[in-house]
Amino acid sequence: MLLKELSEAFGVSGHEDAVRQLILNTVRDSVDEHRVDALGNLIALKKGDGPSRRKVMIAAHMDEVGLMIVHIEKEGWLRFQPVGAIDDRILLAKRVLIGDNHLPGVIGVAPIHLLDYKARNQVPKRKDLSIDIGVSSKEDAERKVKPGDYAAFDIAYAELGGQLRTAKGKAFDDRAGCAVLIELLRDRYPFDLHAVFTVQEEIGARGARVAAHAIAPDVAFVLEGTICDDMPKKRDVSPTTDLGAGPAITLMDRSMIADQRLVRLLADTAEKRTIPHQFKQPGRGSTDAGAIHLSREGAPSAVVSVPVRNLHAPVSLLSLKDLNDTVRLMRESLYQLTELDLSR
Amino acid sequence: MDATEKLFKELTEAAGVPGYEGEVRSIIRRHLEPVANIESDKLGSIIGVTRGTTDSPRVMLAGHMDEVGFMVSQITDEGFIRFVPLGGWWDQVMLAQRVVIKTSSGDVIGLLGAKPPHLLDREEAEKPVKKKDMYIDIGATSADEVKACGVRPGDPIIPICPFSVLSPGKTYMGKAWDDRLGCALFIETLQQLKGQPHPNVVYAVGTVQEEVGLRGARTSVHNVNPDVAVILEVDIAGDVPGIKPEESAVKLGKGPSLLLYDAAMIPNLRLRDLVITTAEENDIPLQFSAMRGGATDGAEIHLHNEGVPTVVLAVATRHIHSHAGILHRSDYDHARELLTKLLMKLDKATVQGLTE
Amino acid sequence: MKELIKELTEAFGPSGNEDAVRQLIHNRISEHVDQVRVDSLGNLIALKGRNAESDVEPHKIMLAAHMDEIGVIVSYIDEKAFMRFAAVGGVRALHLLGSRVVFADGTIGVIGREKPMEKTEFPTIDKMYIDVGAPDKKQLTRKVGDLGAFMRPFADMGQRMTAKAFDDRIGCAVLVQTLIDLKTTPHDVYCVFTVQEEVGLRGALTSAFGVEPDVAIAVDVTITGDTPEAHPMAVSLGDGPAIKVKDGGMLAHPGVKNWMVETAERLELPYQLEVLEGGTTDAMAIQTSRAGVAAGVLSIPCRYVHSPSEMVDYGDVQNAVHLLVGLLSGPVSI
């Protein structure tokens, strides 16, 4: 199953090679042209079969949050930095795989000492943590690992079933978006579709910035995995999105205000085709669209997301029903896109 | 003093806060003119171009001309000067330091002051003084006197620190190592390249306004349009008391450092590895550092157009962003050697291979 | 000019929804410019072309003022029709207490607040809500995503005026009046009325890329240091428009700054020099467009910025127009 392979593939921001290779092998026969740019973005073109001259860009990012090894201690412990936003609290005791050889390691707290009551009630800070790869000297460690190597969380994908057909795994942000884009590439649309699997979104939408500059699209969509915090709450306030309520349309996040005409197109299409959908709570998060919509002279943009629980934590959760509804919504909306007047 | 030390003195003693880099630009121009063609962008960055044996690839070397400083924001009725920082300053390195204000009537010297400790109660005396409670004293007793000296809101203010060779003989003290060090590196590298065949065109860029937002990098890269870039910066030395090895393992005298990661850029991994291999082949010591909280001109350069493979090569310096910093001559020499050897390798095929 | 200012400040235009303001401005300037277009983000770009007979060296000059104001966006509606919201741009919770907001269709809402846990609790947006007086959710016409702006009428106090959104409708008014008063110019003057400044200078970024100016001047408000226990600042209401040297995001090109100072002195217009610690303007985005642009800012001193009752001095506004007309009528000397 494609989502399984995508989720288990390794691609921390800055080193997305393995994910890119997997995606390229999957879409190679679905697209007319493809290339990889200087930063590592995979840019594929599916030519249109209609008269529309509109250039449509759709982006999903390949990178996941992870760690980078920065220093090897004399006892063989590995010090690291997070790459992308990771809550320090979820690091302790997690299993990781390091480097292209996937060397296993565990995040422990070093040096080992007896923790008193006070220490046990505190959250260890990231800078006090290190990775244990089971060696006892720096020389042994240096034979297997070097500073600059990446580490990703070691989590297997699994389907949990249930009414919402949930699945658990790492990196649904944004391998879910990649899965949607791969599905969309099976069809041909009445306009040229520039599908971009971007790099380094988690550290500042960097891949999207250069890809958009190269493509100069007339309109853009971004496919994401987004915050879903629908656990029971004490106060009556909105969860950012709800699992099972369908693809989430962004109105406004920290990085952009969605083009209202595109939002209306998406919402109207969902109503007409009876596709469940929701609006993401305004004001939270940022995406590749932040960079794309401001490229050159600007491009009207919108973001559609699959709700994902435990977003930047090792084990995240999504609903396969939401994923399929996202594909449906995007596909139907893209077919309506040619009629949409985007002039001012 | 040898030629390098004279260059260090000239560059570090020059006045050039963000937006007001003219003095530094003139010095760089004078040194580069004999070995390069001079171009610029529209913000004030200077670009020295030296063509080797081919027209491509285009290699950009970037060092920023601006140093951290201050700007006059208001003159009080009693004749003291309120100021804002240009670039990042830790409050605790400022009091009692000397500064010079560049007014339209000439240089005005002053000092950074605050309420004297003799008049503070115990609790107040234990707390660090914040910038907003400091002032600059130019020895006036009224606002009119200050204005008569030519001081106006907006005038740039530069730290005072003469360049010195330190007693051990291999280290130097001066202001603005960040980033006149980078400028010295590209000047001497271009001087060395003249007459030596190199398989590329080298653009040495003295950027402006790095300390306030990498602005000159963003505009100059537009004109240079590089295929590959090396940022020349200072690194934060971790060999003074109070720093744990996991916070920074970089030491003076142990070689130039390569940044694995900073807040705004991940280096091109193949270029990073090429630098490491080049150092190993030539027995040049190399250190590694990761800067979670800082960024360099590379942040803007590597995202230019369709992306540019970029790395940061740095020289460890103690006490940056204060009036006086210290660095080691051997680290500078090794950095220059590594850079020159690297430039010889950056031919068309190699540079293309960085992004295939 | 006060009628123009009243009309502009009372118009509805939170970031991303500047249509009404753009229409107003378009109507006022169309007969005074040679070309008008709207770009894909919604920026209004008006060109007053140069007088070909002039022998002054022509430049492409971009002037910018932003059309958007800060506002609120509905994020959640509960069963009883109370609406939670998020800020659009730099809205301070303190200014919302007791305020009214208005939606695009004219519906009025009142901002209420949950009972604080302690008397001294600082108000925050997550504990506020908008009440439009609907009995329940079913009878509500509002939706998640609706935008609201401060509701406050313009008031003429004589020498001074107060209104919401002087930031930056006063800048827009200054540009409109400049286009009206400027009969002829040796330069190609692009007056850009930008969108989405308050959420990150977004319109300025894209419009500068399209216009590619040589020189740019943004017209926006700046705060003053002349109220009780104010943060020290050298700008005061009534002492003339402020020529910016530095703000939180940008250092004015010294050449542009000096050109503005010399012109003001030559025309015997009052002016002040401004160093602003926090905050920035469209000029920051324009300055680093492509290979860079020589950029400066002409600021209108304004008290109580980002509150529903901002205050400016009419003399400062008029002198800003005189200075701009003076700058655009002669050579650029930077």
Any key phrases for this structure?
heterotrimer; A: alpha+beta; six-stranded antiparallel β-sheet; 25% helix; C: Aminopeptidase; Elongation Factor Tu (Ef-tu), domain 3; 2 domains; 8 helices; 28% strand; globular
How would you characterize the overall build of this protein?
The complex is a heterotrimer of chains A (344), B (356) and C (334). Chain A has 344 residues and is of the alpha+beta class. In chain A, 25% of the residues lie in helices and 26% in strands. In chain A, helix 1 packs antiparallel against helix 5, helix 5 packs across helix 9 and helix 7 (260-272) packs across helix 9. In chain A, strand 10 (158-161) and strand 11 (166-169) form a beta hairpin. Chain A has two domains: 2-64 and 170-339, Aminopeptidase (3-Layer(aba) Sandwich), CATH 3.40.630.10; 66-153, Beta Barrel (Elongation Factor Tu (Ef-tu), domain 3), CATH 2.40.30. Chain A has an eight-stranded mixed β-sheet, sandwiched between helices. Chain B has two domains: 3-67 and 175-353, 3-Layer(aba) Sandwich (Aminopeptidase); 69-159, Elongation Factor Tu (Ef-tu), domain 3, CATH 2.40.30.40. Helix content of chain B is 28%, strand content 27%. In chain B, strands 1, 2, 3, 10, 11, 12, 13, 14, 15, 16 and 17 form an eleven-stranded mixed β-sheet that branches. A six-stranded antiparallel β-sheet of chain B has the order 5-4-9-6-7-8. In chain B, helix 1 packs across helix 5 (177-193) and helix 5 (177-193) packs across helix 9. The mean pLDDT of chain B is 95. In chain C, helix 1 (2-10) crosses helix 4 (166-181) and helix 4 crosses helix 8 (314-329). Chain C is of the alpha+beta class. In chain C, strand 1 and strand 2 (44-48) form a beta hairpin. Chain C starts with a helix and ends in a 5-residue tail after the last helix. In chain C, strands 1, 2, 3, 12, 13, 14, 15, 16 and 17 form a nine-stranded mixed β-sheet that branches. A six-stranded antiparallel β-sheet of chain C has the order 5-4-9-6-7-8, with no helix packed on it. Chain C has a three-stranded antiparallel β-sheet with strand order 10-11-18. The chains are: A alpha+beta (344), B alpha+beta (356), C alpha+beta (334). At the B-C interface, strand 4, strand 5 and helix 6 of B face strand 16 of C.
